[in-house]
Design goal:
InterPro entries: Kinase-like_dom_sf, Prot_kinase_dom, Ser/Thr_kinase_AS. It catalyses: L-threonyl-[protein] + ATP = O-phospho-L-threonyl-[protein] + ADP + H(+); L-seryl-[protein] + ATP = O-phospho-L-seryl-[protein] + ADP + H(+). It is an enzyme of class 2 (transferase). Helix content is about 35%, strand content about 20%. By secondary structure, the protein is α+β, with helices and mostly antiparallel strands. The protein folds into two domains: about 80 residues, 2-Layer Sandwich (Phosphorylase Kinase, domain 1); about 180 residues, Transferase(Phosphotransferase) domain 1 (Transferase(Phosphotransferase), domain 1, Orthogonal Bundle). The strands form three sheets. A six-stranded antiparallel β-sheet has the order 1-2-3-4-6-5, with helices on one face. A hairpin with a 2-residue loop joins β2 and β3.
Length: about 290
């Protein structure tokens, strides 16, 4: 869960963990704290260290942090998930030692068109993402904030899922509008009225939007709500809408997208079947449109 960024000192050059970690360079900061690159001295391994101000004991903020770290640790160790290696606590701070991913995120890769009509690169990236999300679900963890900004992507198209701040271990949720609006399922948006939704189906929906992002560089709508004109047109005629707006995509991909972005949550395709569909695709794009830009 995002936490207010209190003023944190500069930790560059500091040693942590009885001298086993040397904090080398500041990378980024946000509502969560600061992130640095560091060296694990005993193994000469480069890592990332997320630095957080320690919440007050038994506070709501502290409970959120411990819950996030617990769920993240549960799914760590998978090759397509940013893993937690160690958590170091002092009286005032929490330092989370993570995999270092210096090549940026999937959003940046999409913006620079790193997958520009490259079927194998797209397949490689998306299957890895499916593997990561499936591992989470099999471990009883539901991400609920799947989006390109939370997926680290290397120059050689290796991905790692990150940021478990909104994750849950409850498949049935009722906390409403959880995640980023572009990627939230319609039932998640509607749950603000007190209805519940299944987090596993919500994650599948987000994967569908991410696949469209990778393939077209576009978002299909701002919000999966009937108040959004684009989404309203999609609901009225899903197949025709996808075909009319994404003529550059193959019929097989349009069919798969329809199965992921199904308004009825329980009718959405599951990850094993989805992986099989993606792996056996000949191409993501329509042959007649291969020479056109997005």
């Amino acid at each position: 869960m995002p936490r207010a960024l209190h003023i944190l000192p500069d930790f560059e050059g500091c040693m942590l963990g009885n001298g086993d970690y040397h904090i080398a360079r500041y990378i980024a900061s946000g509502g969560y704290g600061k992130v640095y690159s560091a060296l694990k001295v005993s193994s000469s391994t480069s890592v990332a260290i997320k630095c957080l101000r320690k919440p007050v004991q038994h506070s709501r903020e502290g409970e959120f942090l411990m819950h996030e770290l617990s769920l993240h640790q549960r799914v760590s160790g998978h090759p397509n998930i940013v893993s937690i290696h160690e958590i170091i606590e002092t009286d005032s701070y929490v330092f989370v030692v993570l995999d270092l991913c210096e090549d940026g995120d999937l959003h940046s890769a999409i913006e620079r068109r790193a997958f520009d009509r490259n079927d194998e690169a797209i397949r490689t990236v998306f299957v890895q993402l499916l593997n990561a999300v499936e591992h989470c679900h099999d471990s009883g963890v539901y991400h609920r904030d799947l989006k390109p900004e939370n997926i680290m992507c290397s120059e050689d198209h290796q991905i790692r899922l990150a940021d478990f701040g909104l994750s849950t271990d409850k498949d049935v949720c009722s906390d409403g509008e959880c995640g980023s609006e572009y990627y939230m399922s319609p039932e998640c948006l509607e749950s603000k009225d007190g209805t519940s939704y299944h987090a596993v189906h919500n994650d599948i929906w987000a994967l569908g939007i991410i696949l469209l992002n990778i393939l077209t560089g576009l978002n299909p709508w701002r919000s999966a709500s009937l108040s959004d004109p684009s989404y309203r047109k999609y609901v009225h005629s899903p197949t025709s809408h996808l075909r009319n707006h994404y003529s550059m995509l193959s019929e097989d991909v349009l069919r798969i997208l329809g199965q992921m972005l199904c308004s009825e949550p329980h009718s959405r395709i599951g990850i094993p079947a989805l992986r099989m569909e993606i792996q056996r695709l000949c191409t993501f794009y329509s042959a007649k449109d291969l020479t056109d830009g997005f």
